[in-house]
Specification:
The protein is mainly alpha-helical. Helices cover 64% and strands 5% of the residues. A two-stranded antiparallel ribbon has the order 1-2. Strands 3-4 form a two-stranded parallel ribbon. Helix 1 runs antiparallel to helix 11. The protein starts with 6 loop residues before the first helix and ends with a helix.
Length: 431
């Protein structure tokens, strides 16, 4: 059974309570570092830890007056801590707290998304192995090309999601970066040790150099990676939608008892999950564009990125978490019709073997251009008149001069297309 996607956990990461909790983690860690430097009394630190309580309602009240979220946060702490509250935020600028805390949130979100990906990869591998030898037609331009297997198609999806997992690991590392270096990144009023200490405690890397902020190319990489993952899901969902079309019907989404497809037409069984995933992928891609726009800020920093990130950070993470969970469930229960796949493979009367015929004629000494013309002539006649391609070849004198009945038997053996299937699966899944 596929675990429920982590919607509640992901939403909790982006809750106001957790955001303020992360801010407090940064502030307390900074105080701890300053105690080690002799800048803050140890007793004050203990008092801060004992009395610091997050009151979101009070923060909102103060922010309504100050119009500044970090000032409101610090002021609310000072109210409950008392005199030792003066050591909170000492030497720091708002972005020291905001960006470092955001890095922790993005890292936590990445961990949940990586778990989602692992669940999906498990399902894709199982279904790929299940349908390793389930024969179907491969299509290019939407037109029948040559035979493949459904398992081969799914192995391609598995391989792509493995790459996406590696991309997310890299993006997680890039965005897990904090800074406690002051108003323009020069450590004017805070020792570099504080940054090193805070980042190490929170599981982050300190930015080698920063302005007032952690540079947004890191965030652009992260959200672009989420967009790539969403686009892969869109690609797979579109394939399911195409395979579920009535004229094709080689696979379809599971239709549960009591489910309804249309308010007007009781017969409808629509690929609604796949359509939903295609739509949501557009959202995630738009968030990547917004993140790219955030890279170019004025001088050492402006605030134009802040409003963007308040929307795209929770939304992109939550939406992709939902998409991965939904697609995993879809693939777990995907209904596959091998007989329909085999029937569709034969509807073009054997013209899918045209390349085999062409190469065999060339191997027998025919000029490629002449062989191509002969094969295409018979293939077009088969296509237009519904005559079996092989029977036309058997009646073609130019073909019969070069190819025997036994050789035509070998040419029209579908197993030729699958002879390297084991090799491909070993490359994708190992031994």
């Amino acid at each position: 059974m596929i675990p429920r996607y982590s919607r509640e956990k992901m939403a909790a990461i982006w809750s106001p309570e957790n955001r303020y909790a992360k801010w407090l983690d940064v502030e307390v860690a900074a105080c701890e570092a300053m105690v080690k430097l002799g800048k803050v009394p140890a007793e004050a630190l203990e008092n801060i830890k004992a009395r610091a309580v997050i009151n979101t309602a009070r923060i909102d009240e103060i922010e309504a007056i100050t119009r500044h979220d970090v000032i409101a946060f610090v002021s609310s702490l000072t109210e409950v801590i008392g005199e030792d509250g003066r050591f909170i935020h000492m030497g720091l600028t708002s972005s020291d707290v905001l960006d470092t805390a955001l890095a922790v949130q993005l890292k936590e979100a990445s961990d949940l998304l990586l778990e989602d990906l692992d669940q999906l990869l498990t399902v894709l591998k199982r279904r790929a192995l299940e349908h390793k030898n389930t024969l179907m037609i491969g299509r290019s331009h939407g037109i029948h090309a040559e035979p493949i297997t459904f398992g081969l198609k799914l192995s391609l999806w598995y391989s792509e999601m493995r790459r996406n997992r590696a991309r997310l690991e890299s993006a997680r590392k890039a965005v897990s970066c904090g800074k406690i270096s002051g108003a323009v990144g020069t450590f004017s009023f805070v020792d570099p040790f504080v940054e090193e200490y805070v980042c190490e405690k929170l599981g982050l890397s300190p930015a080698p150099v920063s302005s007032q902020i952690v540079q947004r190319d890191r965030h652009a990489e992260f959200f672009s990676t989420l967009a790539i993952i969403a686009s892969s899901i869109d690609k797979f969902a579109q394939e399911i939608r195409l395979l579920q079309r009535t004229e094709v019907r080689e696979a379809e989404e599971y239709f549960s008892p009591g489910q309804k497809g249309s308010s007007a037409m009781p017969h409808k069984r629509n690929p609604v999950l796949s359509e939903n995933l295609s739509g949501l992928s557009r959202l995630v891609r738009s968030y990547a564009l917004a993140a790219l726009e955030d890279v170019a800020l004025w001088h050492e920093r402006d605030i134009s990125h802040s409003s963007v990130e308040r929307v795209i950070a929770p939304d992109a993470a939550i939406v992709l978490d939902f998409m991965l969970g939904r697609f995993t469930g879809l693939m777990d229960k995907l209904v596959v019709y091998p007989d329909r796949m085999l029937a569709n493979l034969h509807i073009t009367h054997g013209v899918i073997f045209s390349q085999m015929v062409l190469l065999s004629l060339v191997e027998k000494g025919a000029v490629r251009e002449d062989a191509y013309a002969v094969v295409q002539k018979n293939a077009m006649k088969s296509w237009q008149e519904g005559i079996e391609f092989r029977s036309l070849l058997e009646r073609d004198e130019e073909v019969r001069k070069l190819l025997s009945t036994a050789e035509l038997d070998a040419i029209f053996d579908v197993n030729h297309f699958l002879k390297h299937l084991d090799y491909i699966f070993r490359r994708v899944f190992g031994e």
